[in-house]
Amino acid sequence: MTSLMGRLRRNVPGTAGAVIVAAMAVLAVIGPILWGAQAERIDADAILQGASPGHPLGTDNLGRDLLARVLVAGRYSLLLALAATLIGALAGVVLGALPSVLPRRAARLVTGTVNALVAFPGLLLAMFTAVVSGLGARGAVLGIGAAIAPGFARLTQNLAATVAGSDYVAAARMLGVPRRRILTGHVLPNIAEPLILHLTQALGGALLGLAGLSFLGLGVQPPDFDWGRLLFDGFPRIYVTPEVALGPAAAIALAGIGFNLLGDALAKAAARTTVPRGRTVAPAPSGPPPEPDPEAVLEVRDLTVTFPGTSPGTSPGTSPGTSPGTSPGTSPHGASPVRNLSLTVAPGEIVGLVGESGSGKSMTAAAIGGLVPYPGVVTYAALRLGGKDVAALTDKELGTTLAMVFQDPLAALNPALKVGGQLAEVAIVHEGATREQARRRAVDRLAQVHLPEPQRRAAQHPHELSGGMRQRAVIAMGLMGTPRLIIADEPTTALDVTVQRQILKLLREVVEETGAATLFISHDIAVVGELCDRVVVMYAGRVVEELPAGDLAGGAAHPYTKALIASLPDLDTDRDTPLAGIPGTQPAPADVGPGCAFAPRCALATARCSSERPELADLGPGRRVACWEVK
Q: The domain at 2-271 falls in which architecture?
C-alpha cells in the first residue's frame, strides 16, 4: 500500500483526484454543521435573487442562500452515491461470482443474465428501476445501483474465471467444500483488490447518475435536496441568472472528475505488479541480504514465486515463509513454480535458462521483470540489477536498464499503433525525449537491428511486418534505452529455422556492441548451447545444474540434463528407431515432494532421492549440480 501511494503521488491527475475527493469528504462532514442553518433560513425579501455580495450564487424561491445549500447538499449527495455504489457492487459481485461455483446449466443461465444486463443501456435501466421503486431518493439509489451492478458482474465474472480453474479450487470441489465456502474463501479473496479499485471509479459514476435522475425529477424530492435537485430547481432561471444553476453543476462535475481521476490512478498503480511496486512482493524472511556481487549485472538469490492457496486456518494471499516452521521459499498452502532460484549474469555474458515447459523459466523472467500476475507472491534474499535492489529502482531506471524480448512479437506490439511510434514512446516516457528526437532514435534502432528500410518500417503497423521483422522491432524497442540486462524469453520459438538463426546472430551482435548482460530462456537446448556462454538447467522450479555452454554436450552431470541432450536428434540419429525421450511427466508446482523432483523419472534414483532434496554443490570451476548420485 505504501508503494501504491508513492506511485499515486507521482501521478499528477491522481494527486488532483485525491485532493478533490478529500475536499469533498471534508465538506460532507463540516458542511451541514457550518452552513446548515443558513441553507434552511427563509428570507421573503430575497426571493429569486441573482448573485450578490450576500448571496454569491443567488437565492431560491423561498429566499434561501444557494451557496449554503450547495455546500450542505454535498453530504446527502455523497451518501446517496455511496449507498448506490455499495448496492450495485454487492449485487454485481454476487451475480458475477456465481458462475464459478454453480453447476454448468445454472452458470450458463447466470452468465446469460449478466450479458443481457450489460447490453441494456444503463441510464434506461436506472430510470426504469427508479420509476418502479417509486420517486424519491430510495428509488434513485436502487436505480443507479441496478445500473452499476452489470459492470461489477462482468468484471467479477472475468476475474473469477481466472481463479475458478486453479488447482486449489478444484481440490476444494473434490473435498466437498460447500459452494458458499468456495465462493467466500477461495474465489472472492483472490479478486478483491481490482474490485475495490473499481469501486472508486463507480462512485464517480453513481454521483453523476443520481444527479441526473434528480435533474430529471426522478430522484430526490422536496423538502430534501441534493446537487441534482438544486440543478433541477435552478435550471428554469439559467438564461436570466445562470449562477443559480452553475453552482450545483460545478459541484457535480468537480466531484465526478475527482472520483474518476482517483479511481483511474489507483487502478493503473495497482495494475503494475512489478517487483519495485510490491503489490505481490514479500520480503524474504531469512536474515540480512548477502553483499552485492560487484561483477554481476543481474544477481538473484533465493528467488521464489508462490501462488497462494487456502486450507483450514489460512487465508488466501498468505506470504510464503512467514509462518513458524516454514523455511524460505516453501509454502504448504500454495503452488510454487519457482523455488529458491539463484543465478548471476555478468556484463557481456549470455546465460541460457533451459528446461521443459512448466519448469519455471518464464516465471523466473516474470519475477525479475516484475510481471508476475496477481495473486502471485515473490520472495527473495537478493534481487539486484546493476548492484541496486530492484525494489529501489524508479520507473525510469527500470524502463531504461531492463529490456524484455518476448516469444510472440505480435502480442508485444500494439496492432493499432505504428512501429516507430511504439518505439518512440519508450524514449518519450522514460527519458523525456521530444517526439522528433524519439522518432529519429527509433529509426536508428531499427537500422541497428538490421531491419531493411527502417524509415519505411517505422511508418508501418505490426501486421505489415513479417515475424522476423517484428521480432527485430521488439529487440530494437529494448535498445531504445541503454539496457544493462536483456531478458529474452523464447524469442525464436515462433520463427522458422532461417529467421531463427538470424535473430540469434542479432542477439549476439547486440550483446557484443552494448556489453549488456543477457538471460536467454528457451526449451531448445541446442539453441542455448550454440548461443550462450553459460547454461542454467531448471526442473520443477529449481536449478538442478549450472555449467559452461561448451561442456553441455559432453560434460553434463545431472541425469535430467543428460536426458535433455539425449532427446535431441542429429544427423547421425538412426531414423529406424524411436526418438529418445524422458519417461514420465514433470510434477505440477503444487505436487513437488520433499525429495528430488526428478526422482520418479530418473534411472539412478535411490530411496534417499525420494525423501531428501539435494542442494546445488560445486563440481568444478563454473559448475554446480544438485544430485546425490553425482560426486
A: Orthogonal Bundle (1.10)
